[in-house]
Amino acid sequence: MSPTASSPSTLRAEVRSFLADARDGAAFVPRCDAWMSCFDPDFSRSVAERGWIGMTWPREYGGGEHSERDRLIVVEELLAAGAPVAAHWFADRQIGPSLLRNGTPEQRARYLPQVTAGTWFFAIGMSEPDSGSDLASIRTTARRGGGGWVVNGTKVWTSHAHRAHFMLALVRTSPLDPQRRHAGMSQLLIDLTIPGVNIRPITTLDGQQHFSEVVLTDVEVGDDALLGAEGRGWQQVTAELANERSGPERYLSNLPLLAALAARGDVPTAALGELVAELESLRALSATVADALGRGESPSVAAALVKDLGSRFERKVVDTARRLAPTALDADSPDEYTRLLTEAVLHGPDVTLRGGTSEILRGIVGRELTRQ
Ligand SMILES: Cc1cc2nc3c(=O)[nH]c(=O)nc-3n(C[C@H](O)[C@H](O)[C@H](O)COP(=O)(O)OP(=O)(O)OC[C@H]3O[C@@H](n4cnc5c(N)ncnc54)[C@H](O)[C@@H]3O)c2cc1C
After folding, report:
1. What is the pLDDT of residue 352?
2. C-alpha 41 to ligand 1 mean position (Å)
3. At what angle do helices 255-264 and 269-294 cross, to 10 degrees?
4. Protein residue with least CA distance to atom 50, ligand 1
5. CA-wise closest residue to 46 among 117, 96, 137
6. Which of 37, 124, 133, 361 to probe ligand 1 with, by most ligand atoms within 8 A of CB?
């Protein structure tokens, strides 16, 4: 597979020009946390038309065979612009790569071209009502039956499940063995429109509905719903989480706010410089993780660091803005800075939870360091 040749600066300029046209044409308004919150199928399709979904994937599935660095350029620009990319984000970032690593040729041929075309969207079904950090305690089960699997259980905080077409669910396919808690789990691709799937959106602090509770009652799926090997679910989700945690969304979610803060002209340049210097260090770290992913590695420790440091940076942008340019919060304000600050504050509690809490990430890093 040879990467498609295009200079990084040309690609970055192309993405910026696309985004400027979209903003001018009122296709979107920049938002903080847009990759998580702003689900816009039309916008995702316009990104797909440019070949920017599944960029690194093989051409036979609609990918562009670009390098991970090229992909990083595109996702950085989409995030920096606060563009509404949530619809395709999860499949592009982790479910597509997992299908490429673990899927059968039939599964890849079925799902990936629809993802790269921006027509099928996926949700991530890991967390459950009593299983977040301790993911091995999940209770959703899949038992052999009905010519495939019969699934029962509840997933929660499942981002955009009420809008997505499929969910990649982590389920127990063998009973919990307390001595081997990470064994006996598998991943299933579940069509969210089939009988037995009941999805209830959950309203968040900002009054929006970003995630859902997904109740699965005797949901029957075929053998072809199993992704990868039966019993290898834990290893597969661990690799997926490296893709999830290492990306630039961890430090660019609030870039629209940082840009609006700088544009005010009344904030000391030293404070802005401090934030930008930190941002550049995070970018460098994230780029090394992109290179490792490009080599087919699963850099879980570096990914945990990017996520933990990135979350702290997100908080620092908000704290700096509130300290140096305080304003009464108002989500409907015509003033862009006020609106963006309000969005960032309302999403503040999410940042250190989603994708793994800070305590858990520091545990991953600490364990690895003590092993060396
Ligand atoms: C906006 C948002 C979107 C999300 N989207 C998805 C999604 O699409 N799919 C999905 O599967 N999940 C999703 N989640 C769920 C997310 O992954 C979980 O919230 C997260 O893993 C934490 O789990 P929990 O909420 O059960 O908290 P808990 O695990 O109960 O943790 C509560 C607190 O206890 C601390 N804690 C727990 N265990 C330990 C320990 N061993 N040592 C030290 N401290 C500990 C945690 O750090 C945390 O501070 C989303 C969450 C948010 C906020």
Report:
1. 84
2. 27
3. 160
4. 354
5. 117
6. 133
